[in-house]
Structure to design on (313 residues):
């Protein structure tokens, strides 16, 4: 039920259905921004981003060759099975949801994919009432796959001085590569050149997730998914160079409502949402939710003041 976005192409969706009479099937990519309770009072907080329909039975037109998975399913269905195939457009978003609070019930807000087969006279006749018992649904998930080549990581630096002093503290931070997988340790290399007489008492590293919700309004917010302090002392007129290992994990952020996470299947566990990879020509508004991450390094000096932050993407 996981279909991979390989950046240049997306896995085809192929399923088999048995016990058919006259059946249509659709694959829909939708954005949900409200709870099921609101649907009951006539307010539908669900927007279809992309829908594709096809007739399964009776067979209409030519069909593509079956995949090995479909052949295996057809053997189980015997002569009652009918295979179908969908190609997902390259510009569609991956499955992503906003983490609900522990007390919230119902489906979470976010982007999901649903395969639905139904018995009907027409593919999409608004006047035709389709009975629930003539419908079956299956939630699938489109997941982001890393590009084959990984660029070198970013590097940033900043210099700050104190009042009544012309001396500076130089801070530089960098990471080895631009892309890390879920659960990977991220080595953050920090260089400090303290030309002042002040003492650097602590180094604080944070990882922030920025989520931009695009469909129903332009809503952009940032949540910290990792916040660690290291008691590293850098005396006045001295230098330091050290690598700190950090691992941002969803398991440490279970209580944060609104955090973007990869799409879930039923009650399976998931990860922090993968970074949205935008290709040339993609419509930003079609993505529903955009996710990005940044690393911040801050120094705490002996006077207790915050020296200022450095941001690297």
């Amino acid at each position: 039920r996981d279909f991979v976005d390989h950046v240049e192409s997306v896995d085809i969706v192929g399923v088999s259905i048995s016990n058919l009479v006259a059946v249509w099937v659709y694959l829909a990519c939708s954005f949900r921004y409200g709870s099921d309770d609101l649907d009951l009072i006539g307010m539908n907080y669900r927007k279809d981003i992309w829908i594709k329909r096809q007739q399964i039975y009776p067979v209409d037109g030519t069909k593509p060759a079956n995949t090995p998975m479909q052949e295996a399913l057809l053997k189980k269905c015997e002569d009652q099975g009918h295979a179908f195939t969908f190609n997902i457009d390259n510009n569609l978003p991956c499955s992503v949801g906003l983490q609900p609070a522990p007390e919230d019930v119902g489906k979470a807000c976010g982007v999901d994919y649903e395969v639905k087969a139904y018995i009907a006279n027409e593919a999409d006749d608004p006047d035709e009432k389709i009975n629930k018992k003539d419908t079956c649904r299956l939630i699938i998930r489109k997941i982001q796959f890393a590009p084959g080549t990984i660029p070198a990581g970013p590097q940033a630096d900043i210099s700050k001085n104190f009042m009544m002093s012309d001396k500076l503290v130089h801070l530089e931070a960098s990471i080895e590569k631009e892309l890390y997988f879920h659960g990977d340790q991220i080595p953050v290399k920090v260089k400090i050149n303290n030309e002042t007489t002040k003492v650097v008492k602590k180094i604080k590293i944070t990882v922030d997730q920025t989520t931009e919700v695009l469909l129903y309004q332009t809503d952009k917010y940032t949540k910290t998914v990792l916040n660690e302090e290291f008691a590293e002392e850098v005396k006045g007129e001295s230098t330091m160079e050290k690598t700190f290992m950090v691992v941002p994990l969803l398991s440490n952020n279970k209580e944060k409502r609104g955090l973007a996470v990869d799409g879930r299947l039923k009650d399976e566990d998931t990860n922090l949402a993968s970074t949205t990879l935008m290709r040339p020509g993609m419509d930003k508004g079609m993505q529903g939710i955009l996710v990005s991450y940044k690393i911040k390094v801050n120094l705490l000096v002996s006077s207790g003041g915050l020296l200022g932050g450095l941001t690297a993407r």
Notes: The two ends are 32 Å apart (CA to CA). The first strand starts at residue 2 and ends at 5. The chain has two domains: 2-144, 155-301. The domain at 155-301 is CATH 2.60.40.640 (Immunoglobulin-like).
